[in-house]
Queue: 4 jobs
Job 1
Amino acid sequence: MAVFRSGLLVLTTPLATLAPRLPPILTSAARLVNHTLYVHLQPGMELGGPAQPQASPVQATFEVLDFITLLYSGADLHRQLDVRILLTNIQTKSTFLPVLTSVQNLAHPPEVVLTDFQTLDGSQYNPVKQQLERYATSCYSCCPQLSSVLLYPDYGTGELPVEPLHAPLPSTIRPASPVARSPKQPVRGHHRGAVGGTFDRLHNAHKVLLSVACVLAQEQLVVGVADKDLLKSKLLPELLQPYGERVDHLSEFLVDVKPSLTFDIVPLLDPYGPAGSDPTLEFLVVSEETYRGGMAVNRFRLENGKDELALYQIQLLKDQSHGENEEDKVSSSSFRQRVLGNLLQPPNKRPELPSGLYVLGLTGISGSGKSSVAQRLKNLGAYIIDSDHLGHRAYAPGGPAYQPVVEAFGTDILHKDGTINRKVLGSRVFGNKKQLKTLTDIMWPVIAKLAREEMNLAVTKGKTVCVIDAAMLLEAGWQNMVHEVWTIVIPETEAVRRIVERDGLSEAAAQSRLQSQMSGQQLVEQSHVVLSTLWEPQVTQRQVEKAWTLLQKRLPKTHQTKN
């Protein structure tokens, strides 16, 4: 069976009947499409008649919004799919307009059109497929050689759950009052509104939030995207996509699902953003988590002489496959955690390194837990080169750095027995950039030479993976002698706590030490693999084992390339 990169799923079954059939329909679609799946809702459309069907408006009711949530929730089980429910024909009662009077361009033109429409005998009936293809191409920009597939009876009827078909869907918008609300109740439209978020790794919960906002807005939607100070409290902020990348993904999604709207995507730099200051806005879409923030926005508006916004509180999507230490909701934080241990960029080719040896550079800010990760890698079979130990060897009397350091800094840095007093030397260079550069210009090339000698020793011992454990790996330029940089990240507050506890320093001294190093964000930008020791030791162990297993899978290919 052919697999297509992009597809259009046309759903024709009435929503109440369709809801319980949705999981097998999505599973069938996921077998045929592996990247972008557009969904077009046209309940009640007849593909088996003589007349060519036309797109018609679908009343925006609470049932429609609930179905959109149900579909995105179900799509979360098929994470390889980028599902996008097209909203052009879903309209609020006050704004019924001609639907799709021109062909709508899509970012990923569908290569195949699918439908849940049921033929009488369940066959791939050609006239129905032709009707489907004509309908799809009259609505959307599709690939010239468009294929079509009738999913029925592949998704079957025997897989239906036993609950009655008329059971109400879970509510997307939390009711503002305890009064019962009919699923068929129309949704009120507004001219202009707002929605905000981080929108990192745009996922299905984001898409529910954005889709509700797109249905409610008739003219303009202001989208605030968190940036700068609002990102500091996020879990694993070093792994957040850059602002520009998040905006690009957001913009493509929004223009795809409702091109008739004007979108104003702006950086969100404070908790209120445009929602607190724009007098033309009428509504704000929030999640269960950010509802209190929405209330604060309204208080802020009232204090500044502006009307309150209508607040639409969206229920969170549950993550049915969340792992240990992950939230039970669909969350960008969980997606960032799942990145830990993965290869983020292609490895470096290092033909000058010993043949058959693959070298990792392990780094991280002070207190990040490099030593514990190095020990875990050693237990898995890696040969560890500790740059601190090499530094001790270099400083020792008769060592390669001993005489140059004494000549540069004088004999008053020596103990009575002639060894270098590293505390005195440290105090001499701390806070003095010129003196520090003098020291590193001596030490870093010496340590690099010793590390290369250790690599050769690793080869003689039959090792295939070597790890250079070095806090200053990138500052020293040693990334030029490794295939991959592996970085350990933790929040700075946790690093300060660990340094104070481990080294007996004051908080100010610990912070001063961190400020003299590259930040976690700067390290990650140059890294191939990122790990974190923020959680319990067994969680770190699983991360390291995952990273090691993935490394083993790419070693033969890398060696083949290298050789």
Job 2
Amino acid sequence: MSSFIDIITLDNFQHKMPRWDPDSANHLFALVDMGSNGIRFSISDLSPPRARLLPCIYRERAAISLFDALNKPPTSPNQQGGTAPMVFPPETIKLVAQTLARFRAIAVDDYGVPPSQVTVFATEAMRRAQNAVAMLTAINAEVPDLVVYVLAPQIETLFGSVGARSGFVDVKGLFLDLGGGSVQMTYMDTYAAKARGGHEEDKEESTEVGYEIAAALAGESLPFGAARLIRVLQDAGADVQAAETQKLHSGMGEAFETLRAQFPTLAATVAEARERDGPGIDIYLCGGGFRGYGSMLMHNSSVQPYPIPAIGSYAVSGDEFRRANHLLKVNAEFDGKIFGMSKRRRTQFPAIVAVVKALIAAVPRIRSVTFCAGGNREGALATMLPREVRESNPLDLVDAPPYSTPMPPLATAALPADILDTLLSAFPPITAGALNPLTSASVFNLHFGPIYIRQAWARAGEDADANASAALHDAVAGNPGCPGLTHVARAILGLTLCARWGAGVSPIDGDLYRGLRALIGATDPDALLWADYLGAATAALARVVPAWPKSRQAIDNSIRFRCTSESGKKLKILLDISISKTAARGLDPQDLVDLFKNVAKNRADTKVAVTVSQLG
């Protein structure tokens, strides 16, 4: 076991994690965070001079809840015994192993990340599972050279807080991270650290983390993550719920008092708030649970539709933050889609609110709350950087030359025409009286196919909803990559790229999205169908071939489209997606099918049916 599992602690993390070297020939780093609520994978380019920005060039999330996969635990999160063992079922072990194999292949084979710069770490669910060894053995069998690290609670606090801090120039306040299995609390004050001129240990080695280590040492990890706590609230009796809620409140209060005693600037802020009616304490929140609370606050903001479709750096006053009961009521009564909130997150929302209420009760006066995009992965990357890079002003680097493009040199890569040919094969044959993508306004006949294809893999490291928004705004702002496009061409390009990213349209973008569709629908309603269909087909291709294809043969060896149609009262488009056994490893076929779920959704005369098969 020692060859493929290790525990990362504050004492050894600098030696276990990959090291960043500004003179290295390759600055790509891949990270897999095996969290309790899902497994997140990202590739980041830490090339100078933009390393401080932690630019992400590819990201993907596997909806595998390791905590849910464990057999139902004892009712009390703190109870050590119980009748039901907490073990991963065999099907979950197999799926996780295949998923990590897929992620590793994307990193090393498709993007060229050195194997030594691929890191996998696990958190609360793996720490609790009684058969964690079986999981790790299966991973080792599937990917022998992949090391899985299990994070000690203090390291999880370190990575989470440093990741949240990385999104700002300077910070001073409490940092909390709410995951599926646990919640961490600590405190950071970069102003005080800079005023002291750093710590003595920093002088010996520039990669020491100074105030961040102090935060990790003083931080507390409580076993009240959203996935764990919701089970108590849904399944336990009233007495157990009351007892566990009390433990949560007392644990949060004790954690806060520990931090107050450890950090003089926090103690001074608390004293000022209590004794002299001072402004109060600033709080920074990260983790999926807290981001869900922020999304609900954004949904209920007085500014509607809220103009920025991203939760990162969204801030509210302490008074707004305290509206927990109102938000709980909205979550229970609102039937529509809330932007940024998945069905799973809304199911867990009562548990999230319980944690928020415990935080409100623990902190004497909250001035502001800021929701952070960064977390464990960003923190792990940031701690690889030397202090002078980590503490530099990120705003100075925004205009620095970015990582050029995920597309390899055209001399060795598939041409845009090759990729367009593959996508065209996803369309039904042209027959008399049938819908025709070559006569409707589309990427194919408006002659901007190469522009579209060059953007199909761009921004793969960004959030899909943010990419959908960017596609719409880039199309109308005159910067889609080529001047001189007509209004129709801009609308088609924007809508097709928006569909490629799932068309997760935020409220502020709704009017723009509807306006572009109205522009096309007024003259060519069929073009809307093909824009949605091509976007979904492109998303399927990019899911199977995650980076710009290295050759036409590489596409054909991984994925094939075959499409037919049946005429009648309703045109039925029958698409089969064949993928190779290698490409299918760790990939859920239903995910590919679901990419097309909204295509032709509002058309009474057309239906799209998608199947996935193995490429023979």
Job 3
Amino acid sequence: MPAPRAREQPRVPGERRPLLPGGVRGPRRWRRAAGAAVLLVEMLERAAFFGITANLVLYLNSTNFNWAGEQASRAALVFLGASYLLAPVGGWLADVYLGRYRAVALSLLLYLVASGLLPATAFPDGRSSFCGEMPESPLGPACPSSDCRRASPSPYCAPVLYAGLLLLALAASSVRSNLTSFGADQVMDLGRDATRRFFNWFYWSINLGAVLSLLVVAFIQQNISFLLGYSIPVGCVGLAFFIFLFATPVFVTKPPMGSQVSSMLKLALQNCCPQLWQRHLARDHQGARLLPDQRSPQPGASPQEDIANFQVLVKILPVMVTLVPYWMVYFQMQSTYVLQGLHLHIPNIFPANPSNISMALRAQGSSYTIPEAWLLLANVVVVLILVPLKDRLIDPLLLRCKLLPSALQKMALGMFFGFTSVIVAGVLEMERLHYIHHNQTVSQQIGEVLYNAAPLSIWWQIPQYLLIGISEIFASIPGLEFAYSEAPRSMQGAIMGIFFCLSGVGSLLGSSLVALLSLPGGWLHCPEDFGNINNCRMDLYFFLLAGIQAVTALLFVWIAGRYERVSQGPASHSCFSRDRG
């Protein structure tokens, strides 16, 4: 007996359904084909993104540009921060002007053009065309003492590279905020369970792209050629753009519904600052009145819908904001976890001779060095393994037993695993410092820097990477599902953008905390180490993060509990309850 068909969503004016015909089972087949196309596009785009970021510092620090280490690190941080903080811009443009389909297509096109700058500057003729000739290093007097420091010269080709990186960040952020909800639109007709499963596999696709990029692209960039290594991300974006256009006939595309962000801001101003609002009304009697019924008819939501959606937004934002400390912990795996790993003994898996085993990341003769970016694979692999297991086995079992937790309950569980990850990192750091303080160290050279590492193996970091990977499954994936399903329809793009933007805020807050603690007298102030952290107390930094995470997790549980109690009432405004009745 054939399964009953899912009830289709009411068609929005201007919405285009798939052009390809189908029989009784046709719609389900085309919905799945459209979802699969979105997942493939996301995998290729993430492979390109990680291929660009994995060795960006190394690329700018190479002889191609000769940027100082702090200059290259700053450029990488600006690019990563902008790729998250600009996400609401892409979502707003899709809601108001472009629609999600055109927003994704145009963003991929911009992505393709901007990503071509990196391989174009990877060979001498291209660099001279875009940047001019590299200036000669100025000759100056010798340093009078061994501890004097020269001022870093102005970085070569900085305006061109920063402009290209910011365009890349805008394109990547727009794809990130719109492709997620566009993919969920493709499977919404199949029911809420299909949407939940789509987000599971969407996140799995992100990590599959990361694995391919870290294993292949990062290795080629570090050991063979930056020209070839940065040409591969361009090819990935080009293929993603082709697949997206090729799959157009099976896509459900919806017109821009208009964004109520400006209406939300006016309502917030009216409620929070009534005196300022009255002054605003006095200046503009004709156009400023948002709520009165005498307002001339305009397209978009009615004043009553504005108020209802504003109430939904007020409920959603506290939940998303209390997730920010989790992102502070999550992004440690790309910063302090890696720094900690560089100060643990990294075995050489390509030894040229047994006497050279302590030179952990430098291979001799015809061997290759181990890319530092491979240290992130532990997190990625656990996501790749656990997402299919969760989707195929754990979730169906819990669903049959009626024990499947809500998205908010999963997010709370993810925050707990993040807390345990940073606690484990702090305990490992205490043990590492115990060896350091007893002068039990091994020397290992990474790039041009010699590190005095503890004799503890880097494999002791696996538990903290596993725990942060598990936390990602329970916090980030349900977070995406929550942001999409609970947002008003006309603000889904903007809300998804805000979700990604807040994760970027968490990353920047973590970096700011590190900068604050690196000031003289701080736990992370290590003036004598020249890049090492053996005189720092990074263990105390990890325990501080754990404390912040624990306090905000309790606050999150309280806010989430209130949200679920209110949402169970008849006034729930999630897109599922609104559309499915």
Job 4
Amino acid sequence: MLESMAVASDSLLYRNLITIRNPSINFKNRVSALVGGFSWDVRKLKAKSKVRSKVQAELQVGIEKEEEILGGLNLGFDVVSEGELREKGFMGMRKTKLVCTIGPACCSEQELEKLALGGMNVARLNMCHNTREWHCDVIRKIKSLNDEKGFCVAVMIDTEGSQIHVVDHGVPSSVKAEEDSIWLFTAEKFEGSRPFTVQANKGFSEGIEVGDELVIDGGMASFEVIEKVGNDLRCKCIDPGLFLPRAKLSFWRNGKLVERNYGLPTLSTKDWADIEFGISEGVDFIAMSFVSNADSVRHLKNYLSSKSAKSIKVLAKIENMESLQKLEEIVEASDGIMVARGDLGVEIPLEQIPTVQEMITKICRQLNKPVIVASQLLESMVEYPTPTRAEVADVSEAVRQYADALMLSGESAIGPYAQKAVSVLRMASSRMELWNREENRQSALYQRQLGESMPDRIAEQICNCAVIMANNLGVDAIFVYTKHGHMASLLSRNRPYPPIFAFTNDDSTRMALNLQWGVIPLLVGLSDDMEANVSKTIDLTKTKGMVKPGDSVLVVSDLTPAH
């Protein structure tokens, strides 16, 4: 029998201190509880204990053996999380989220479904590539899979940015650049491909001199400029490697990056058109490229709030020196961060990448913003079906640092082994999460106070304490009832051992929580009556077989209770 339940809410708690009564309770067969500031009438939940004070630490919720299915009510549980729960139990559920870049290799409905089944939480569309019609088709396929087959995959578009030069050899797959081969980089536009010829953006060669080094995708291949022919560059390959379609270009002189496009706006005219497209298609996230200050992030967020009926989250990509210099203000202004290690590695020494990654991840946790570790996680799988051991170690290190999400780029977009790459991320992250838990490697987090108002500070402290309780008492899961996802994210920030099931009636919140570590968002009808919410969701989860006799659950809410 599922027996006790307790609730923690940030509402009205400022009137009383939170206390916990009867600490000697045997929680093995109970669902634990915090309640403060008001009393609950739990008669409808068949409570076995009496309400003795305003602070109620144990509510007996003896749910009888009834198997009735609540008429018309549905638990918005995505099929992948539900299957994982049934197979592995609460503690076996993966907590690190997976982002996959969609490209020509995985854009069919069948391939997208395979990625979703493999654990893709967010589908990323890089607006540098393909047409808007192509992106529109992919977005509608993803939404169709969500609606018709029970997935919960969010959609992210990634802006190109004005401070970028892109080159394209015209071939849909990668091309090997051999040592000493001669290539022409040209701004001339032509259809298809030409041997040893690469199309570049207009003005790409301005200020470039003979002897400068041209670097592809942060070091995938390198060339020396041997001749300027008008606006074109003739170059010799000095460091052979893979040349991907629509690759990024940078120039170096005497060991230093050649500064270019200084003063250009963060978002180009094309970016704004892509953002309008994203609004019209109802995307969930917009990732901003080459962010250099917080003002550009705030400007986009204000624009989205005035133009979009739904809440679209803005992620700032950290990929240049300016963004590192203003990191904290950018993190505070954004809804999340992407560590674009490929581009970042062009501007800072390679040996600094690991420590910079860990620093960014830590700051994001402190400021309660999700962080994605991206670029070259499994780069060898663009060509080969198995990763290098070093790549697996790199993935595991990002998981050990408690990054919210890991991202595939070319591995899924153009590589032939997208499903295998997702499987590697899933298995490596699950194994490292288990090791962290078994070794009791709970990452100590400096608890920077985020809330300014008393209710916000109370909510923050409730979540901090709830995670300590959940870990110490060994509860199986945390249930949080939330409108905008705030308390779910505060719980996630503390990286609890049990999974966090976030019940919300807002679809934008559900999709946004798809990027939060350890949070399984569920779309379900909620009311201001917390008693009814708890009763309904417990019945639904019981009917679905999610909770079993002996399971213990900690319940937290940021919904206003009925008085």
